[in-house]
Fold this protein.
Amino acid sequence: MIFTVTCLTTCVKLLLIPAYRSTDFEVHRNWMAITHSLPLKRWYFEDRSEWTLDYPPLFAYFEYVLSFVASLFDKNMLVVENLNYESQQTLLFQRLSVIITDLVYAYGSYLCCKSIQKSWRTDVVLPILLITNCGLIMVDHIHFQYNGILYGVLLISLSYAMQAKYVLAAFWFSVLLNMKHIYMYLAPAYFVFLLRKYCLNGVSIKNNINTARSIKNFATLGAIVIGVFSFTFLPFYDHLGQVLSRMFPFKRGLCHAYWAPNFWAIYNTIDKILHLFLLKLGIVTKKSSSASMTGGLVQEFSHEVLPSVTPIVTLVLTASMMLPALIKLWSLNRHPSDFLRSIVLCALSSFLFGWHVHEKAIIMAIIPLSILSIMDVNDAKTFLLIGIVGHYSLFPLLFPSSLLFIKVMLIILYSTYALHSLSKVYPFAAHNFSLPLLNKGNGGHTQHPEPGGNRTHDPGCSGQARSYLTHLGLSEAYNEFGHKF
Amino acid sequence: MFCVKLSCEVWLVIFGTLVAVLLRGCTTLHPYSGEGSPPMYGDYEAQRHWMEITTNLPITEWYKNGSENDLMYWGLDYPPLTAYHMFAAGKLAELINENYTKLHDSRGFESDEHKLFMRYTVLVVDILVYIPSLVVYFYATECQGSDKKVKPLSPPLSTILGLLYPGIILIDHGHFQYNCVSLGLAIFATVFVLKKFNIAASICFCAALNYKQMELYHSLPFFMYLLSSCVPKPGQSTTSGIIKLSKIAITVVLSFLTIWAPFLFNMDDFLVVLQRQFPLSRGVFEDKVSNFWCVLNIFYKLKLRFTNYEMMRICLFATISMVFPSSIDLFLRPSSKKFVLALINSSLAFFLFSFQVHEKTILLVAIPVILYFPQKPFVCFWFLCLSVFSMTPLLYKDGLVIATVALMIFYSTSFQVSIEHFYRNYLNASDGLAEYYRSLLHVLLNIEYKKATQLDILKLTYKEIVRNRKTLKQFAFHLFMFTSLMGSVFLSFLLLVFDPPERYPDLFPLLISAYSAVHFFGFFVYFNVQQIKIPQEFDDIRNVKLKSS
């Protein structure tokens, strides 16, 4: 099944080769050129293109390896001076490289399915939910990025964590961190999980911890993490500061060019409204230099009325939001799903309160949630809602009108499949999963007899969710058609 | 509660259809024929030009050469229904951007928005006509032709595989044409014929024929079958037959009159339109077509020996004699099981032997083959793959190679999955087809040879072969099919990767068309045999007898 699904999805990805691609296409081409034609010492100093290398070194090595294959396609794409170079061969190579490295993702999904007790859900539902993830298709194969391989490594690590192979899980997670540091969002959960399960592997903290073993395990973990980090960063030891300043550009501002749908988007909006309100009242005067927040440029701006937010504030907020989940993980921690749930919560809190968050980061919560969705009915409900809304929030990334049909079809297909399969996985809860408009009068206000019986059932929830999703459709329709008039 | 109400099969069809629509949507991103290649461009420009002509000129001028309408530049040469469709689409285009259809000035107009508009027009008619027609067909004719020995493929699977057929996706949404309209109408006509709604069938088929004159390829079976349904069966009166016939005749005449009405006020108008439909001066084939004449032309230069007019008569004679067996069989021994086969045979005969054939015309054969899919999945799959393969040179020229590869892999994988699913039920084995092959291999290898002499082995082998003749035959067939498909993959690979030798610039397209033509001829014989093997249907007579007793 997993092979078939991968094969069919790959065909769709192949069909998307000529689709619109964002500036990330040029970003990655430029990185390939930098790593191929410059000595390692220059990688993080090079700034002829505005798209400087800002991923950790392991990803740069990955680009370096890719560049050798690229030279078979078109040597000109490896010249640093060829800014915005885009030949047919370049397009083909870059797209194919994403499609082929996606096989790592397929392998990760395979491992994940294998590490959960075998049943129909892990044979059919989970592979389809993971591999056909429409957010990844939109971000990787249209917008252009290499998330497939990264999430593949994440899935490999998660699967080892679920199989209680902690050393391997830690190894793959540090590899992942060294490929893209945005996965630091998940690091707290990993840290607590490994500490509790592997290092302090006692029944409870109070009685008899095997100290010698704990120290040995701790040392093993430390050695692995330090080993991976030193492998990637050692070649850059004399200019580590430069590498780090490239990786953490705090100058980029609170929000990304396109606002991620998080807390700061609301904050900014309130700020704008307040500012307009005060302008009307004549309390403040318009500053001439106020930068446009939605201009699509990566830049800093300061808030007009509300206090401006510093990175430290976001860090503290994020940490405090993660804390309950982490404490719960420390004390609960019986079942693999507890770990997955804390991963999701960490990803979500970073997404909501982090500094300079991209809207793509929502996938980080959706993918672990899809694994959870086949384990627990409540997670399934959350997954359906976050899946639909999260994928919908990626729509602004694919703004060209030629993609409207495709993105709508992708999300409809994925959401209907998720809805259909999950309602088959949890047949007794089926009436709780519903699409808006299609079943009027059900679920919202009427109670249904439940053969399953023992779950907590919140009838109001699905009604609210439904009207929420209906509004989603309406707002998209307004975006596409209404806004022009 | 709608998740519970719908059965799994219905969900399968819903997902299959959605995926088919998604694939169509993705294919629209690829280039169309003649993209950015002045002065003549391609079929895309032809359709746009027709929108320009129909929206700007009075209806009687559409088909006439004149100062405003240069017929040498993509003159309208499809029947009136296409023209009306283009008129409607053109009006819409005018609303969106008047530059799309400005007379003369809009020639060769190309922009991203326009491409999107054109693509959507195809997508809409595809979703409205072609996709429903296939779904309706497979569900309406579920019990049709279900042999007791071989279970036909279930409707959901055949529907999905039909919708995923890459040929029509590539030509309509890649190359750019509106084949889905006429083909969808023809499928609706087929549904109505098989369900014995003769009037509705006639209307649908007239519409199809008036959308694209190529539907003539399908007309003989329709004519023969409808005619035979009017021949009074034993126990029926002659008058009832005549009434039936006159009903059909009146329907046909009325639908033609309605569609052609604007051109009937003046005899000249009518003749001009009619002449435009049959451009006999264009030669026996264009480019390289996988038919009989193109292959014959390799050894025997037809164009040097015969004038166009002579060639036309030869083609006419050849086509008629090739259509003859299946049509006469359909008329004399009518059976609803035969009808789709007769459609295949007639269209394939036209494709192989008639005058002025395009490589895209193979779609007219592919459609009835899709309809026949449940009965003989493997043969039909083989044919459909080769039909796409025969269009490779055209798709290559249009820059649709990636789309072709992707859609073919998608189609083959879905076929493999569906067949496996199907055989799992059919053979009641857990591993489906794999199990079937494994047992076959087991039988072949399980020959005791410890003490046996060479002769004993031979004897045993012979016995095994005799005992498992049927399985072995199937195995040989699958092996042959696989080899043939691999051959086509290899030839396409040659076309894509290597430059042809300088002396023969057309070597690879020619090889491809010859390779496909040989196959098509084999399929032609096979489908004819299949049709003639089916006995006459006695339903009507039996009913009459039951009633009288």
Notes: The two ends of chain B are 50 Å apart (CA to CA). The interface with chain A takes residues 1-4, 11, 14-15, 18-19, 21-23, 25-31, 112-113, 115-116, 120, 123, 402-403, 405-407, 409-410, 413-414, 416-417 of chain B (CB under 8 Å).
